[in-house]
Amino acid sequence: MPDFWKKPVPSLAADNAGFLEKTGAKLGQLVQLRAIGDGAGGNAAALGDFETALALKDLGSAINAAGQWSGSDLPSLDAWLSAAKARQTLDKAVNGLVTDYLATAIDVQ
């Protein structure tokens, strides 16, 4: 039996966990998948890329990978994409505010 089948299913992330940690924990509870090799294509590749991006806490790459899904509509994926894009917009706005504040603080000195 391969080692990845022996790993326990992760529990739900703590209430104070970040957006990506919670998504990863929920995904981990849904299904245990076999490892996907470099030769995977289509939805298998998109899912592999999505899981990798979540593990790396890379929201932009997770959004890109989720956008590669083809075939039947998945309402839960659509809802996740909407929430993830809103989070990405928020992150960009906060980063802009921090950059502006730091630039102002440097100019004052």
Give a short synopsis of this structure.
The protein has 109 residues and is an all-alpha fold. The protein has one domain (3-108).
Low-confidence stretches: 1-12
Q: What is the straight-line distance between the termini? A: 63 Å
| Number of strand elements | 0
Tell me about the largest β-sheet: none
Order of helices and strands: HHHHH
Chain-averaged pLDDT: 79
Number of helices: 5
Strand content: under 5%
Number of structural domains: 1
Based on secondary structure, the structural category is mainly alpha
Tell me the overall shape. elongated
Helix content: 55-70%
Radius of gyration: 18 Å
3D architecture notes:
The protein is mainly alpha-helical and 109 residues long. The chain has one domain (3-108). The chain has helices at residues 3-6, 19-30, 42-55, 59-66, 75-108. Helix 3 (42-55) runs antiparallel to helix 4 (59-66) and helix 4 (59-66) packs antiparallel against helix 5. It starts with a helix and ends with a helix. The model is unreliable at 1-12 (pLDDT under 50).
Features:
66% helix, 5 helices, single chain
Topology at a glance:
Layout (H helix, E strand, L loop, with lengths): L2 H4 L12 H12 L11 H14 L3 H8 L8 H34 L1
